[in-house]
């Protein structure tokens, strides 16, 4: 009999519990939270001596004050179903009662949950080393982060997410002493050409992207097994072969942004001082051709050449019985 992988079982339970929260209404989640608090004491007290699984704030107790400004929305930390309530309803189990990434689910989550006290964020429109904009965090909450246990919180309202952004900022003094960086300028994407794709391939080798991402972009380069994040935890490079969404988005603009801002807290650096904007677009176009299971204008153009067609056919694993493609 095959032995169970208990780490996988525990991790699956964490994901299922997150999904249950995700598809519950705020009112229903509050009711379930009150029921749970009657059975078990919280693992840790959050800032302001407010129990993590508590019912609405008792008279005289408030969360740290904070606001966010996203478009026409103003987020708040205090108030019924505002940022504090939402955080201790949906987020603290992974990110911790004090926002330090040490929630009760954290030992079973890979990569580890974001540490809001350190305020180092992967997905940003700002240069490397700078705080993200409030819109960057807002977008991450809505989009989620693929290949991680961070789900999309699209079921929350825009106001809910703005309130959460306001509360997340209260965990770190960086927001008091620093300002978010200025978002990078993204020039219009040039037309996709074979010359652009081929130059991107040259850059992929020249910049040694293959050492982490592998020659075919499968995340299996010679350095891949040695990589760690800012928490000294193992981290895998992105696998272009199996994916189409990136950690910080899914569009060509998102991929360009990753090149130029880097992914802070990971070994993925910013190339803003290394390559020109037009070269970054060439890289974008080439990397799209490595995503052979995702239809794109870049892949279609590449497959129209004998070289590209031969490459894609050689990389696609076929079922020997039926002849149909097998998506990894």
Describe the fold and architecture.
The longest helix is centred in the N-terminal third of the chain and has 17 residues, at 6-22. The two termini are 26 Å apart. This protein has 2 domains: 6-177, no CATH class; 194-315, Cytochrome Bc1 Complex, Chain D, domain 2, CATH 1.10.760.10. It has 13 helices and 2 strands; from the N terminus they run ααββααααααααααα. Strands 1-2 form a two-stranded antiparallel ribbon. It is elongated, with a radius of gyration of 22 Å. The protein is mainly α and 328 residues long.
What's the quick description here?
39% of the residues lie in helices and 2% in strands. It contains 13 helices and 2 strands.
Q: What's the helix and strand layout?
A:
Layout: H1 6-22, H2 26-39, E1 67-70, E2 73-76, H3 83-90, H4 92-95, H5 134-143, H6 158-169, H7 174-177, H8 194-206, H9 210-213, H10 252-261, H11 277-290, H12 297-303, H13 306-315
Antiparallel strand pairs: 1-2
Helix pairs in contact: 3-6, 5-6, 8-11, 10-11, 11-12, 12-13
- Any idea what the shape is? elongated
Q: N-to-C SSE series?
A: HHEEHHHHHHHHHHH
Number of strands: 2
Helix content: 25-40%
Number of domains: 2
Strand order across the biggest sheet? Answer: 1-2
Instruction: Tally the helices.
Output: 13
Q: Distance N terminus to C terminus? A: 26 Å
Low-confidence stretches: 1-56
Structural class: mainly alpha
Mean pLDDT rating: 83
Q: Could you describe the largest sheet, including whether it forms a barrel?
A: 2 strands, antiparallel
Instruction: Compute the CA-based radius of gyration.
Output: 22 Å
What percent strand?
A: under 5%
């Amino acid at each position: 009999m095959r032995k169970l992988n208990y780490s996988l079982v525990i991790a699956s339970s964490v994901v299922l519990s997150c999904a249950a929260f995700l598809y519950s209404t705020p009112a229903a989640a509050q009711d379930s939270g009150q029921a749970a608090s009657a059975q078990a004491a919280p693992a840790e007290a959050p800032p302001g001596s407010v129990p993590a699984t508590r019912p609405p704030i008792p008279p005289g107790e408030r969360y740290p004050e904070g606001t966010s400004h996203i478009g026409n929305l103003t987020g708040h930390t205090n108030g019924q179903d505002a940022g504090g309530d939402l955080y201790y309803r949906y987020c603290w189990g992974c990110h911790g009662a004090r926002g330090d990434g040490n929630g009760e689910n954290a030992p079973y989550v890979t990569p580890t949950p974001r540490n809001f006290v350190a305020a180092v964020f992967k997905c940003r429109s700002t240069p490397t080393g700078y705080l993200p904009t409030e819109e960057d965090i807002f977008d991450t909450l809505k989009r989620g982060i693929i290949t991680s246990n961070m789900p999309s919180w699209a079921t929350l309202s825009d106001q809910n997410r703005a309130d959460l952004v306001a509360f997340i900022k209260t965990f770190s003094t960086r927001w008091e002493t620093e300002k978010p960086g200025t978002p990078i300028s993204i020039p219009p994407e040039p037309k996709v050409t074979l010359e652009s794709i081929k130059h991107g391939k040259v850059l992929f080798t020249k910049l040694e992207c293959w050492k982490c991402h592998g020659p075919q972009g499968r995340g299996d380069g010679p350095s891949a097994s040695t990589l760690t994040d800012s928490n000294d935890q193992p981290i895998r490079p992105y696998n272009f072969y199996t994916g189409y969404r990136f950690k910080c988005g899914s569009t060509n603009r998102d991929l360009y942004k990753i090149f130029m801002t880097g992914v802070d807290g990971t070994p993925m650096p910013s190339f803003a001082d290394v390559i020109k904007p037009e070269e970054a677009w060439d890289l974008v176009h080439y990397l799209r051709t490595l995503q052979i299971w995702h239809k794109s204008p870049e892949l279609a153009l590449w497959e129209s050449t004998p070289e590209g067609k031969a490459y894609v056919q050689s990389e696609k694993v076929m079922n020997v019985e039926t002849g149909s493609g097998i998506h990894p």
